[in-house]
Amino acid sequence: MSDPTAHFNTVTDTPTSSVTLSGHEPFFIVFNSGSGNDDSARTREQIEALLTQAGRTHTFLAVDEPSRLPQIAEHAVKLAREAGGVIVAAGGDGTLNAVAAAVLPSGLPFGILPRGTFNYFGRTYGIARETEEAVASLLDARIEPVQVGLLEGRPFLVNASLGLYPQLLEDREAYKQKLGRRRWVALISAIVTLWRTPTNLSLELNSHGERKVLRTPTLVVGNNALQLEQLGLPEVAHLEENRLVAMAAQPVSTLALYWLMVMGALSRLGEASNVISFGFESLTVRVRGRRRIKVAMDGEIFWTHSPLSFSVSPQRLQLLVPRDTSRLDRS
């Protein structure tokens, strides 16, 4: 099948940062005690000890109830704006997403202490999951403006999806609650989920005057170079052109879905004849026959209404990344 969005793309200039760091800004750390698979209290104590040893002023804003995360993130932005500080998110992809959503409109510097299972966002920019290394990166950081995707105006850092992929994430979370947050648990969960015949969606795609109809079990829109590289999608270069990358599978059997999973694990998904991928600047997706659809953004699942609007945020996230590029480790 040919590229269904051959004329969907335009290129714009990449903005640069006007934010600089003195190295003395106070940190306001939104800490999700429910993220990660290690002991939260011990992790917090380690972060506090490292920052205190470095003489860096810091304030923890603990999140014990997930529903309060957006409110606490907004409060952290208010405090950081008043103090000329930096907002730091400590948690998994969902935590980073929620805090980034509050930080993005402010233009304030944003740091992360990633504690998720896969840590795609942090690894892309050389930010380690290990606490000591991540804190060291915060203390000796520069600012890099990074692209953010939007779904219905809501930001996402890694990806946003509908169809089978949100179901995979939902099932994976249920398995992790029982078996722990390990990568092999995610694999077992995916095998079980794919065993059930997924529903194929009928999607109408519109972008820059072009309209295409596509039947697929899932549509995933990516904003993360590392994840796209690991899947083997050549369109990863589009991310450097102020665009997002969409990928979808044609309707296939369960056995074929398993084979696509293997191809992705081997970084060869782009070679699969029944996978469509393309870059775009903005995209509207209408789900035929459905007014409401389950979607996932950076691992967090919610319901929204069709049609869906995907675009690149006109603002860049002012991300703190390691100044010492020799620390970069994307493995």
TrEMBL record:
The lineage of its organism: Bacteria, Pseudomonadati, Pseudomonadota, Betaproteobacteria, Burkholderiales. It comes from the Bacteria. Keywords: Kinase, Transferase. It holds the Pfam family DAGK_cat. Residues 22-155 form the DAGKc domain. Transmembrane segments: none annotated. Coiled coil: none annotated. The keyword Transferase applies. GO terms for molecular function: kinase activity. The keyword Kinase applies. This is Diacylglycerol kinase.
